[in-house]
């Protein structure tokens, strides 16, 4: 029997890296819970900034947080005001989750990286689709517009969008999808970006899934290949 596998998890250690990078023999479960809760809180807080991913690195005396977004200027703010305010809020939340982060000898660092090509990023596209759905734009128009934008990106060879729920407020839930190009989900060397999000509407929620295929990776130091 077949079953669904998350495309990111399926390729961990092959052409994907872990988004939490640390190792601890005795506090593994505690650190994993802290990372999960902190990441969920941040994704909800920064949803308007189109955050692509949040990466966490730990060492004996340092906690480093990297936020990747196509809108770094809005997040950093004028003169760094926004990032300093965000750093205090994150540190306060992190201290609630872990007593070790309150130690004066423990270093907390935060970095913001820019997503150069948002049209080729599944997380950003999924968030844009959610915003369009919540503005009550017709779902078929959304599907056609966003798949066209994704395919116009230079690195993209294939794209797929799936919507599931009470589309346009219909009485019965259903799924609608659109695809252009190819999406080789079973090929481990395929560079596939995947994301899912949820649109909250007055008549219910609509699930959004986005797949983007960016060519194949044949070696650790080799960039993804594409035919364009």
UniProtKB/TrEMBL annotation:
<dbReference type="GO" id="GO:0003729">
    <property type="term" value="F:mRNA binding"/>
</dbReference>
<dbReference type="InterPro" id="IPR004087">
    <property type="entry name" value="KH_dom"/>
</dbReference>
<dbReference type="GO" id="GO:0006412">
    <property type="term" value="P:translation"/>
</dbReference>
<feature type="domain" description="KH type-2">
    <location>
        <begin position="38"/>
        <end position="116"/>
    </location>
</feature>
<dbReference type="InterPro" id="IPR001351">
    <property type="entry name" value="Ribosomal_uS3_C"/>
</dbReference>
<keyword id="KW-0689">Ribosomal protein</keyword>
<dbReference type="GO" id="GO:0003735">
    <property type="term" value="F:structural constituent of ribosome"/>
</dbReference>
<dbReference type="GO" id="GO:0019843">
    <property type="term" value="F:rRNA binding"/>
</dbReference>
<comment type="similarity">
    <text>Belongs to the universal ribosomal protein uS3 family.</text>
</comment>
<keyword id="KW-0694">RNA-binding</keyword>
<dbReference type="Pfam" id="PF00189">
    <property type="entry name" value="Ribosomal_S3_C"/>
</dbReference>
<dbReference type="InterPro" id="IPR015946">
    <property type="entry name" value="KH_dom-like_a/b"/>
</dbReference>
<dbReference type="InterPro" id="IPR057258">
    <property type="entry name" value="Ribosomal_uS3"/>
</dbReference>
<protein>
    <recommendedName>
        <fullName>Small ribosomal subunit protein uS3</fullName>
    </recommendedName>
</protein>
<dbReference type="InterPro" id="IPR009019">
    <property type="entry name" value="KH_sf_prok-type"/>
</dbReference>
<dbReference type="InterPro" id="IPR004044">
    <property type="entry name" value="KH_dom_type_2"/>
</dbReference>
<keyword id="KW-0687">Ribonucleoprotein</keyword>
<dbReference type="InterPro" id="IPR036419">
    <property type="entry name" value="Ribosomal_S3_C_sf"/>
</dbReference>
<dbReference type="InterPro" id="IPR018280">
    <property type="entry name" value="Ribosomal_uS3_CS"/>
</dbReference>
<dbReference type="Pfam" id="PF07650">
    <property type="entry name" value="KH_2"/>
</dbReference>
<comment type="function">
    <text>Binds the lower part of the 30S subunit head. Binds mRNA in the 70S ribosome, positioning it for translation.</text>
</comment>
<keyword id="KW-0699">rRNA-binding</keyword>
<dbReference type="GO" id="GO:0022627">
    <property type="term" value="C:cytosolic small ribosomal subunit"/>
</dbReference>
<dbReference type="InterPro" id="IPR005704">
    <property type="entry name" value="Ribosomal_uS3_bac-typ"/>
</dbReference>
<comment type="subunit">
    <text>Part of the 30S ribosomal subunit. Forms a tight complex with proteins S10 and S14.</text>
</comment>
């Amino acid at each position: 029997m077949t079953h669904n596998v998350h495309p990111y998890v399926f390729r961990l250690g092959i052409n994907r890296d872990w988004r939490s990078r640390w190792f601890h023999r005795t506090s593994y479960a505690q650190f994993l819970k802290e990372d999960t809760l902190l990441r969920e809180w941040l994704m909800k807080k920064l949803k308007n900034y189109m955050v692509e991913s949040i990466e966490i690195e730990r060492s004996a005396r340092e906690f480093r947080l990297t936020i990747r977004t196509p809108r770094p200027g809005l997040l950093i703010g004028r003169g760094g005001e926004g990032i300093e305010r965000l750093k205090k809020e994150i540190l306060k939340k992190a201290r609630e989750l872990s007593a070790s982060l309150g130690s004066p000898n423990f270093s907390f660092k935060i970095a913001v990286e820019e997503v150069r090509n948002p049209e080729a990023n599944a997380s950003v596209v999924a968030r844009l689709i959610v915003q369009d759905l919540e503005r009550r734009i017709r779902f078929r128009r959304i599907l056609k517009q966003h798949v066209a934008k994704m395919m116009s990106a230079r690195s993209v060879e294939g794209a797929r969008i799936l919507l599931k729920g009470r589309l346009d407020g219909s009485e019965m839930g259903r799924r609608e999808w659109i695809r252009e190009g190819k999406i080789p989900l079973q090929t481990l060397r395929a560079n596939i970006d995947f994301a899912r999000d949820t649109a909250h509407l007055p008549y219910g929620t609509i699930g959004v899934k986005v797949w983007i295929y960016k060519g194949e990776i044949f070696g650790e130091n080799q960039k993804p290949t594409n035919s364009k």
